[in-house]
Amino acid sequence: MVKKMFGAIVSLFVVIVVGSLMLEQFPQLQPLWEETQVMAKSLYATAAAKYGIAGAVILIAGVLIMFGTSKHNT
Q1: 0.70 surpassed by pTM
Q2: In tens digits, what is the pLDDT along the chain, a chain of 74 residues?
């Protein structure tokens, strides 16, 4: 379990670093990133208003886990 948590933290760190490098190398992506942040904040606010803060966090975590554990047979 600790190994999975450590792997998740390392994966998150890698995504943050790679995303930061991409935004530095391709500054034209900045408006797209800003729009994505606005949309994510809006979705969170809507979920928090409907289900409460704890419910919204659990819902978001569930969706992320669902996408993270889905297996595609390609």
Answers
A1: no
A2: 788 878 878 888 888 888 888 888 988 988 988 898 899 899 899 999 999 999 988 998 888 888 878 776 65
Round to whole Å and give the CA distance between 54 and 61.
11
**How many whole angstroms separate alpha carbon 29 and alpha carbon 67?**
24
Separation of first and last alpha carbons in the chain:
29
**Where are the domains positioned within the chain?**
2-69
What are phi and psi for residue 26, nearest 5 degrees?
A: -125, 80
* Nearest partner of 47 among 66, 64, 60, 32, judged by Cα: 60
